[in-house]
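Limitations

Structures in this collection are predictions, not experimental determinations, and the ligand pose is part of the prediction. Treat each record accordingly. The example that follows, with 4'-deoxy-4'-aminopyridoxal-5'-phosphate as the small molecule, is included so readers can see exactly what is and is not provided: the inputs are given verbatim, and the output is the predicted complex.
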Amino acid sequence: ITQPDLSVFETLESEVRSYCRGWPTVFDRARGSLMYDEDGHRYLDFFAGAGSLNYGHNNPVLKRALIDYLMRDGVTHGLDMSTTAKRTFLQTFQDLVLRPRDLPYKVMFPGPTGTNAVESALKLARKVKGREAIVSFTNAFHGMSLGSLAVTGNAFKRAGAGIPLVHGTPMPFDHYLDGRVPDFLWFERLLGDQGSGLNQPAAVIVETVQGEGGINVARPEWLRGLAELCARRDMLLIVDDVQMGCGRTGAFFSFEEAGIVPDIVTVSKSISGYGLPMSLCLFKPELDIWEPGEHNGTFRGNNPAFVTATAALETYWADGSVMEKQTRARGERIERELIAVAEENPAEVKEYRGRGLVWGLEFHDKGRAERVARRAFELGLLIETSGPESEVVKLLPALTVTPDELDEGLSILARAVRETV
Ligand code: PMP
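Predicted complex:
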């Protein structure tokens, strides 16, 4: 094995990189669930651009749509202009996503990233309600800008901007309640506590599965209780579907299973389907109160992304709900393997959990997940870690992963667990 030339990354690129740091090679090509480095080594990608590549790398249908669009000199940068690519996307989104689910949303393009979508959701909720506070949960992740970071429940990441984690009382996400605390009593108490500063928040922001927080899964009944509480206490419910949306959990929106209709939904990552930057903020029509220009930005009209996003939606529903059923079935295959790994290592595995094609494997020894991910890389599998102390191995294959690729990746994972201590 030749040593990769990493010198320019080591000397010129800032150390701040966190994703993908443990992969000491230089990647060059990628297709479907496979990536290749410059020396031709093959890696199975169960990271999928942190959830941005649900359709795999260079999906041939999306690539064809993109190439055709570029070859005919389609508009690439359109700010807020009405373009044919944007119109086709909006029409397709309405026909394939909103109307069949009876979702009443208006669509805003808040910028290229998930952070932009969250930032717009927080701003809109504050403006609509005329109040400041937003409630978010322990170990939530919503982005890196000041507003989205302020609702991110991670002391380390907040310290990067000098925002201390000041919650006197943690806001426990469903997963941390362990069934011990009666649902929402703690929340009701906080809302009534003059000292908590939460007397009348504008909104609550929640992930249905905390992706960066360690694959913490909310029960549908907890989400329904949260929606009911928000309605009763006049708070808007924002579901941040940046990572869990676009089919990741086995339904297009991750909140569908719970049967709730959030007031605001943020979408990004896999919406373009091709890894091109794009985000959406969806909100109920009565919240559409911003004056023109109150929230704008240059990179809101990524027309090539509209083109691949349209092809992605068509691909998703090309065979009815087959993609959703397949996602759930492949998730069950992952669960079976994680059960086997847990049974093989009963003293070491703390928990496995997930939904659809997002799964986490947590160890008692908090450093173990990083060691497993490193060994998996040596064996040809790209997996990340998540959780406040990177203590959870995170499995996030593309929704288009083949059964053989899934089996190969899972057997590498089992071997990596076996070969680390
Ligand atoms: N919200 C959630 C739930 C996320 O997982 C992420 C990214 N990991 C973001 C927001 C921020 O998205 P971006 O990195 O595109 O700004």
